DNA sequence: TGATAACCGAGACGGTACGTCCCGTCTTGGG
DNA sequence: CCCAAGACGGGACGTACCGTCTCGGTTATCA
């Protein structure tokens, strides 16, 4: 982190030399990439519990010591591999129709969670539950951007007057996302498009009789 | 399961002798209780990942073979210990005021999840994510009753005309519960009473501008 | 050790039950034998430094945990394997001629040390130098019996009047054995029959001019 | 070795330029000294097996690459550090009384071996047992001079007529030194002055009844 | 007076073995 | 037939050290 801030500093000042120490052989970027790729591959093939540090090392053509030099444990490697592969958060288009946009978003999410991504996400949450640091990474790198993006979309709709002024949009996103995660993690209901439809409809219209 | 069906059979018929093949020493009920108590205690103390079959056996004063004679693996023991300790599902009173009842329910849930119970539930879900059979037990013994109870309460309110006719109450409960589980499992927001309040308000009133 | 004393107790008293507890599955003697055989085999094939606990386990068809359950480390396993294979100390015949007997003994020793046994002994001493417990085993199980036997033989000759009364026979054996070990361990001279001859002659006759 | 032969060449001939290709920075003598000092210090503190190349490097304020640039492996460093610190072989005075001289010599040796030097020597022998090159260095740089010196002393006595003509003095020194090394390496007896006394007496007088 | 070549520190790298831990199975003797 | 005690095979874990490598930077000598 520190040296990244340093090298990325766009204003080359005299202070540069303070952090550009970097004595010794620099970290092998190729090894890092190979590890993340191997971890992601094994994650998809063997599931979260089936991945082994030894297997990652062998697959990546890397020594186990190198793994432990840069990541404290298996959770950390898997989590970084996951966010490296799934970090990008493609904001959907804002068509002006909050209902349609929300529907598209939630349908996409349920469809993804119903497939291979669902298995992977489950694994990452299991990992997060056992390791607070992994949890923090998952939250910051994967969850937060998507969540914020959804809140933003709702906020824009609210400013357009489509959503009532007093609504707590953050809690609303928790309810939308939470429902999907709930079904994913507990398996208590199917992740089908109709579920997304009903969920959006429920959130938008509310339960109370007018 | 099999012999349970047998011993629990309330109708003592002539068929009894078919399953009451209890030649030999019967299962020690005291050992079973000691195991469940020990598992629950260790679960609370060491967290889910920290519990060991060996530790359960020693704490319960029981041999490891006895554990594996009656449960197929660690998840099963922990899950049964959990539902034995937390199985009862006390339905709250139905005061006739949906909003107040729902608020009470969700506040209770968030408060519980914010405490020791939250840690335990997290552990059980982690266990469920790694073991489908444990997941089934968790769902059937813990989750389903509470979920059904909540759906029932909303259904009664709907019949009373407090909730609009077309609302999908099952999805609504998924959203309510899901939001709380979401925060519990991802740690992405605090489990405070205000969260319960906002959640109920959002679900009841909906997001759309009237 | 303790339970050995116990089971070997020839007088079956009431106290027997105190130590014949032996609860639990008894130690597998076949595993123990397989381990010692495997260790001895690997020792001969790969030399002392080349043996691996993992290799011993695999060769013996045994789990690594079983190794560490009964021996604290590699040295201990190797040492026990060594003494199990080379523990027997065949006392040579006492012909009544000290010189001849001594010569036969030292020639046999140098011949053995010049061959494969020399390599093995070197390894065991290296192991003993790094691990005091292994040293104690080597001393008690291998060295002491042979040394004592040699001292005894000299003592008998002394009683027969062939060796002068004041001679310190223990120190003499140290000199005889030490010289051979010295050449073995430092490689500073060859272990040939002539060396044994000269050594015995020197010790018997002494250096001083009469 | 090569460049040592070169720099040590006392006869500065025209050939000098062949090996004095010292284009570039010359070897840092201070680093070399620091390494040997550090190795010797760690050897005394942690014992032979406890010394690490990394530790030597850090202690000497030197990089690991520098170690491996000048020595092929750990044994070589330790051995050179040992002989650098203990290479000098102070020949004792030749008083004309071979018995007294021998006694003084062996008493000094046992006393030294009973102390810190004994631990160090043990370590070097352990190292030598695992590495033939280290063994050669130990033999040539440490052992041989002392051994030769002792043989010389005995030879002088023999020429003076104090020792019988036919005695094999080399074997006698092996017996004297070997006995002390034997006790040091196997720990089978104490290294006390009385041992030196008895040893010398035994060797000088021999065992046979006259 | 540079240029250049070998030095140096720092430290990451592949590799190998270590000793620990836990799982789920088994083998005893005893109730 | 149950139970306690506890040994067993299996397999992943995280650590430690080895000897090699790549950096950026530092000297002496040669051109």
Write a brief caption for the model.
Chain A is mostly helical and 210 residues long. The first copy, chain A, contains eleven helices and no strands.
Summarize the helices and strands and which ones pair or pack.
The structure is a homotetramer of 210-residue chains.
Chain A: H1 2-8, H2 16-19, H3 29-46, H4 53-60, H5 64-70, H6 74-86, H7 98-114, H8 116-130, H9 132-159, H10 169-186, H11 193-205
Helix pairs in contact in A: 3-4, 3-6, 6-8, 6-9, 7-10, 7-11, 8-9, 9-10, 10-11
Chain B binds a DNA duplex (31 and 31 nucleotides) through residues 22-28, 31, 52-54, 57, 61-69, 72-74.
Task: List the defining traits of the structure above.
11 helices; DNA-binding; homotetramer; 210 residues; 70% helix
Explain the overall architecture.
The structure is a homotetramer of 210-residue chains. Chain A is mainly alpha-helical. Helix content of chain A is 70%, strand content 0%. The longest helix of chain A has 28 residues, at 132-159. The termini of chain A are far apart. Mean pLDDT of chain A is 89; it is low at 1-19. At the A-B interface, helix 8, helix 9, helix 10 and helix 11 of A face helix 8, helix 9, helix 10 and helix 11 of B.
